[in-house]
Amino acid sequence: MTYRDFIANPARDCAVVAHRGAWHGAPENSLAAIEKAIALGIDIVELDIRKSADGELFLMHDDTLARMAGIDRDAETFTMAELQAIALREDDGGEGRALTDQRIPTLKQALEVIRGRIFVDLDLKDRGLFSEVAACAREMGAHKDVDLKTKVMSRADAAWVQAQKIDGVPFMGMARFTAEGLHETLHVLSELSPFMCEIRFDNIDTIARNREVFTKAGMALWVNTLDQAGSGEWTDSAALADPDLIWGRLIDAGISVIQTDQPVALQSYIKARRA
Fold this sequence. Notes:
Elements: H1 3-8, E1 15-19, H2 31-40, E2 44-51, E3 57-59, E4 64-65, H3 66-69, E5 71-74, H4 80-83, E6 87-89, E7 99-103, H5 107-114, E8 119-124, H6 130-139, E9 146-151, H7 155-162, E10 171-177, H8 182-190, E11 196-201, H9 204-208, H10 211-216, E12 220-224, H11 236-241, H12 243-253, E13 257-260, H13 263-274
Parallel strand pairs: 1-2, 1-13, 2-8, 8-9, 9-10, 10-11, 11-12, 12-13
Antiparallel strand pairs: 2-3, 4-5, 6-7
């Protein structure tokens, strides 16, 4: 099954996205975190992409290696050989976290692992890499298993995406929906026909009232419940305390993809709702 087909399936449960891989027990953005997500039966992993000093695409979220390796230097100033000699800290890093046997992976290494086994959201730290990352996915035969995404809030944004060479790679929009601007935002997005959109919103009722509109547009809705400022009240911490209040309300409103740092808890909650 392709990523598009999986997302378009109206009979599926809400999909679980493991943020930076299933990193509880494995370094984030590592091959081990991807393998753990696969072993857990998680639907999608989110991975962060950067480019090394010698032109190789690799996985790392932060600008520097301080948190994940204790090296306060910009990650993109290293060659790929230098990066792969660096041990990653366990889990999501930070001082006091032990070093592991995991090294910083190339995108090609990650795609080799995921191909045909799990779907992947590629979060590019420089959207100028769109065409290059798409070409890499096609070269690795993983183009039907991944997505590329960027913010689309204006016609200029849509035109930029249209100019990129991402043929064969599913595109996911990123947008904020408000009661007043929902239809205009949808109109701009319609120029790209994204199979999915990572959204923020003014009020959950804005999304719930327009479920049929989103369905007609053929666009699944993705929400992050990460413990980050942009999540507002919709956080993992709040969901662990009261999953019905957070994950349940999102699913009931029509959200069918949720990205979390607590993928096992979300997975268990979705299964319990189905029972």
